[in-house]
């Protein structure tokens, strides 16, 4: 059973084809890692799912979710789905969170819009969500602003917002890149736990195969807009089939120094 299926996805931008026939299947309760170097097209693949590609981008293929092709949905239907059934966590929470709006309002406005909750219901759910992502003093945190949290705590808040409307699919685009190693590990454990607990289908986009080895169930490797390899985590990490995957693995610190 798949939650979301990408079939023969192509993306053309400024006359250049940056994604060339990508196929992916996301399953409930599993993390699908999408790895590749900068410019490989992995982030654009994630943005395609939510209809957030740059202006002028042209797409082909299909992205199937709940019986609909997301690439063919009218803007109003896509807006209703985005952030509710399919959600995204971006690389830098400093830019995805509004600096002048308290965390509580950023959470509750989102839920009141999509779930039609009243103010009290939205506030109660906001506290529950912040506690779920392990923000200390969740009640008090509602009144605080993004700059009053550390980078790791801001990313946890961003994850709470992404989960606010009980999405079925979560796209996580380099969610640990801006964080130090210890904080990275905490965010990855959180994503793994939420995936298992909530049955989320997660697409984890990263350039770091070391991150994949910690949490992904399935790994796909992307190069120059093409998937060069897909397989179970153990298979890809221990017995990579493609030379490019082997090169990425050899670049990992523990391999490079062994």
Q: Can you give a write-up of this model?
A:
The structure is a single chain. With 258 residues, the protein is an alpha/beta fold. It has 12 helices and 10 strands. The strands form 2 sheets. Strands 6-7-8-3-9-10 form a 6-stranded mixed sheet, sandwiched between helices. Strands 2-1-4-5 form a 4-stranded antiparallel sheet, covered by helices on one side. A hairpin with a 2-residue loop joins strand 4 and strand 5. Helix 4 packs across helix 5 and helix 5 (119-132) packs across helix 7. The radius of gyration is 18 Å and the shape is globular.
Write the layout of secondary structure elements.
Elements: E1 4-13, E2 16-26, E3 30-35, H1 42-49, E4 58-65, E5 68-69, H2 75-81, E6 86-89, H3 93-96, H4 103-115, H5 119-132, H6 138-141, H7 151-163, E7 169-173, H8 181-198, E8 201-206, H9 209-215, E9 218-223, E10 226-232, H10 233-238, H11 243-250, H12 253-256
Parallel strand pairs: 3-8, 3-9, 6-7, 7-8
Antiparallel strand pairs: 1-2, 1-4, 4-5, 9-10
Uncertain regions spanning at least 5 consecutive residues? none
Task: Determine the strand fraction and express it as a percent band.
Answer: 25-35%
- Report helical residue fraction: 40-55%
SS-derived structural category: alpha/beta
Mean pLDDT: 92
- The separation of the N and C termini measures 40 Å
Instruction: Output the helix-strand order.
Output: EEEHEEHEHHHHHEHEHEEHHH
Radius of gyration: 18 Å
The coarse silhouette is globular
Could you give the count of β-strands?
Answer: 10
Distinct helical segment count: 12
Main sheet, how many strands, which sense, barrel?
Answer: 6 strands, mixed
Largest sheet: spatial strand order:
6-7-8-3-9-10
């Amino acid at each position: 059973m798949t939650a979301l299926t990408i079939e023969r996805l192509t993306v053309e931008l400024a006359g250049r084809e940056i994604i060339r026939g990508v196929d992916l299947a996301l399953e409930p309760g599993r993390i699908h890692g999408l790895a590749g170097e900068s410019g490989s097209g992995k982030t654009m693949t994630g943005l395609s799912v939510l209809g957030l590609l740059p202006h002028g981008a042209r797409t082909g293929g299909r992205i199937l979710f709940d019986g609909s092709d997301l690439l063919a949905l009218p803007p109003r239907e896509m807006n209703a789905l985005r952030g509710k059934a399919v959600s995204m966590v971006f690389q830098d929470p400093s830019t995805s969170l509004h600096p002048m709006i308290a965390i509580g309002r950023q959470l509750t406005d989102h839920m009141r819009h999509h779930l039609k909750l009243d103010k009290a219901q939205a506030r109660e759910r906001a506290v529950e969500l912040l506690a779920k992502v392990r923000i200390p003093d969740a009640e008090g945190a509602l009144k605080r602003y993004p700059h009053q949290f550390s980078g790791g705590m801001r990313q946890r808040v961003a994850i709470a917002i992404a989960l606010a409307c009980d999405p079925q699919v979560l796209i996580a685009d380099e969610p640990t890149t801006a964080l130090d190693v210890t904080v990275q590990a905490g965010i990855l454990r959180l994503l793994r736990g939420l995936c298992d607990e909530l049955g989320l289908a997660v697409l984890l986009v990263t350039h770091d195969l070391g991150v994949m080895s910690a949490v992904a169930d399935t790994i796909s490797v992307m190069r120059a807009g093409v998937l060069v390899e897909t397989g179970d985590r153990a298979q890809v990490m221990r017995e990579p089939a493609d030379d490019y995957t082997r090169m990425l693995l050899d670049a990992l610190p523990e391999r490079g120094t062994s």
